Amino acid sequence: MQVFTFKTTEEMGAAAAEYGAAAIKKAIAEKDAATIILATGASQFEMLKSLVALSDIDWSNVTVFHLDEYIGLPETHPASFRKYLKERFVANVPALKGFYFVEGDRENPVEECQRLNDIIQAYSIDAAFVGIGENGHLAFNDPPADFDIEEPFIIVNPDEACRKQQLGEGWFNSLDDVPKQAISMSIKQIMKSRRLIVTVPDKRKAKAVKGAVEGEVSTMCPASILQTHPDCTLFLNTESASWLMK
């Protein structure tokens, strides 16, 4: 695991975008196609802003999956991850080869998981752009996370700490408004990515970052599993890195 710390979130996001873009361009050069995973949330604002500004990526050869989505939340809701990615990413790049959204408001979430599982098994992931939650989660895999489940997409019940984070970031008006179920990419599927680009700003994430980087690998800090990945790089700002040993 590599860890880089930047003074500002803008510098952090730009560096993460460049590092991930290198993996995309390498994949396109080698096999004429790249497949990536995109996360959402406040931690990804600056990275996505920088990524879509890069002019040397042939997006017509890029297929995208996204990490997770609330169950039962319509795409029109301000907290919808589909809405987030369509506005901040899809609308700002040329036509993609493909984008497979998690449609959390489908009538049968189990069938939606199976639909995505059938699709993603045909792809190898070249780069995953992800974050770390305040409770150490990856996607919506809250502690104690399941490191062993094989299914790529699963139904989960976000814990209270996770739901409070969503409220604190301003996506909902009250805790009762935050959905209690979501479809999430599993830990094993995330870890299959060739390169992990992990962008984590903010003081409120400092404890989780310390657990991920310096703690033991434990399901109680899901992001600690990143220590075992052969090509994982964390991009932090001064605040999120503040608990790490100097």
Structural commentary:
The chain has about 250 residues and is of the alpha/beta class. It has one domain: Rossmann fold (3-Layer(aba) Sandwich), CATH 3.40.50.1360. The chain contains seven helices and ten strands. It has helices at about 10-30, 45-55, 80-90, 110-120, 160-170, 185-190, 205-215; strands at about 1-5, 35-40, 60-65, 70, 100, 125-130, 155, 180-185, 195-200, 230-235. Strands 1-10-9-6-2-3-5 form a seven-stranded parallel β-sheet, sandwiched between helices. A three-stranded antiparallel β-sheet has the order 4-8-7. Helix 1 (about 10-30) packs across helix 2 (about 45-55). It starts with a strand and ends in a 9-residue tail after the last strand. The mean pLDDT is about 95.
